[in-house]
């Protein structure tokens, strides 16, 4: 197969094949270079493959697996016992070089644990981080990490996230000198917890890094930073809160009447910024290959977006850029 | 003076007397029972008192102070050296029984430290928490705590916040059996960090508490809980992120043309939910008297709202309710 091969966990997320198969079909028709390796249960996947004539597609290989990772599975359990799951097998395909990126809408904790086991992190990276895009007031995007892969982070991890985020912004957002900020509860130097303050001091010392200081939650969308760094608990709550506000504004209660319906339509268009269908696909970065985590509740358009994001990461060779950054960053500035 | 006396720090926040004096005047005219004790710098406050004829008002007492707490002051410094500041003197007035509640728009860290020193916490309460209201999709409100007073919280503190929040919901929101939830990164029992998981286990054991489990950021506004508990770092980021999303949606860029202006007006009305002018006044609860923290950037209407909130807390005697709850909750369920 060519270099542009993506492994897909067809079973993850709330819907499985009814969502993942149509997305795969569309990705193949959009990108003539793309090859896919599909992993899933024979019983559940086959009818959908037949329906969409995917089984005989020249750029598709199908590998059936006997297990699935559920949302109820703890990471440690999945790691030990679900070695023939579609998620695990898709990651194995990266490790063996069969594919260069992988997409799954499954359990984040299990995906993280399995990815660390099968792919391992890049030299100098302790733990991968989950990174996602945020729309900005003036147009364009910023990146936010971590959004849920690491719930407790020390200063060292936050510094590593900053270096990884910098490369992601350079290659994914195409910003040559991205401004890096730390998410905090105030802008003054004495604000925040120990990890954030220590990370701030250390980021000031990192060579050739544009560190712009602390940023508060109300500036996440204001265009003040290109990369915002925080621990995974805080990032996850911030991301989901923004979705919650969007939903509050679209609350059904006020949609009676024609004018109200028009206004709601207009608002929805504006809120498409925050629509997970368009902003789907957080990436697990810091690993030796690209792993894209699709939203569990993603529909086909959202899962397609996640596939396209995986392709973009292959094309930019994000893992190589991160490896290079960690190789050249002065050791003492981010070593524990 | 009567029982309904509020002490006001006239110097706190970004504006001081130009904002606090008009708010005080309006509060006095709205509430014929209200008495105020005003604390501030003679030079800065006097011209405004003269302008609004407050100096000779029968329900007003003015006490001049020589110092002010700035945003740049660390809590420890303020505590030791700013003992004649308007903030400190207003809190002293609570401690001496001269007033029953206090309002300040000043530095949160200093306010917290000074309040703990002068008022001390209620028996069984380790640290006060900052609590605020959140609008809900179906109408009504929920309470969120802590929103910035305690950046690192263990399980014990989260449990205490739940008990305090329960009483606040009962008396401020008038909900007899409020549903209490913990803010987390997932709804499943195995999600979250250690403090949140341990707090969840302990809340299940608390007598007569309606604990409803974990809630995620996207449900902060969905009406699923009446009280949402988290540490102050997470709560602060969640609250400010929601303000940031509101601002993103009101971004100036798209306001050209007549229709766009009408739509933006409509949207602003809808967003008034999240307008700090209307939702101003987070309270520091768990202390022996009511301390209301106004937004630093509050204008007069917002500062007025904070005064009204202080009055409401006096009328409901929230400190007494919290004291009673901690007295009756079984010791082993919330003792460390």
Automatic annotation (TrEMBL), chains A, B:
GO terms for biological process: fatty acid biosynthetic process; phospholipid biosynthetic process. It comes from the Bacteria. SUPFAM superfamilies: Isocitrate/Isopropylmalate dehydrogenase-like. Its EC number is 2.3.1.274. Keywords: Acyltransferase, Cytoplasm, Lipid biosynthesis, Lipid metabolism, Phospholipid biosynthesis, Phospholipid metabolism, Transferase. One of its GO terms (molecular function) is phosphate:acyl-[acyl carrier protein] acyltransferase activity. Pathway: Lipid metabolism; phospholipid metabolism. GO terms for cellular component: cytoplasm. It catalyses: a fatty acyl-[ACP] + phosphate = an acyl phosphate + holo-[ACP]. Its main location: cytoplasm. It is found in: Cytoplasm. Belongs to the PlsX family. HAMAP family: PlsX. Homodimer. Probably interacts with PlsY. Catalyzes the reversible formation of acyl-phosphate (acyl-PO(4)) from acyl-[acyl-carrier-protein] (acyl-ACP). This enzyme utilizes acyl-ACP as fatty acyl donor, but not acyl-CoA. PANTHER family: FATTY ACID/PHOSPHOLIPID SYNTHESIS PROTEIN PLSX, PHOSPHATE ACYLTRANSFERASE. This is Phosphate acyltransferase. It comes from Oceanisphaera psychrotolerans. The gene is plsX.
